[in-house]
């Protein structure tokens, strides 16, 4: 059975991101190796969550989902503050 259009579009987006050297996919299916080879970018704020090759603290390996949620929260807070500042 052929993949559905949404699957095809997601795969196309992931290939384009990989070619550009980053990923916005932070799900469970994303291998740690991919996260090391490419920057991880927040799809909402377009800011880097994790740099390629960044050494991760132990907490990352203990609870990767919680660590990445916290990183995303921090990145979005900084983006929101910058947006507020630019409106002044």
Descriptive account of the structure:
By secondary structure, this protein is mainly alpha-helical. The protein has one domain (16-87). Helices cover 58% and strands 9% of the residues. It has helices at residues 5-20, 32-37, 58-62, 64-87, and strands spanning 22-23, 39-41, 48-50. A 3-stranded mixed β-sheet has the order 1-2-3. The longest helix is centred in the last third of the chain and has 24 residues, at 64-87. The radius of gyration is 15 Å and the shape is globular. It starts with a helix and ends with a helix.
Q: What is the 3D form? A: globular
Segments where pLDDT lies below 50 for 5+ residues? none
Secondary-structure element sequence? Answer: HEHEEHH
Reported for the largest beta sheet, the result is: 3 strands, mixed
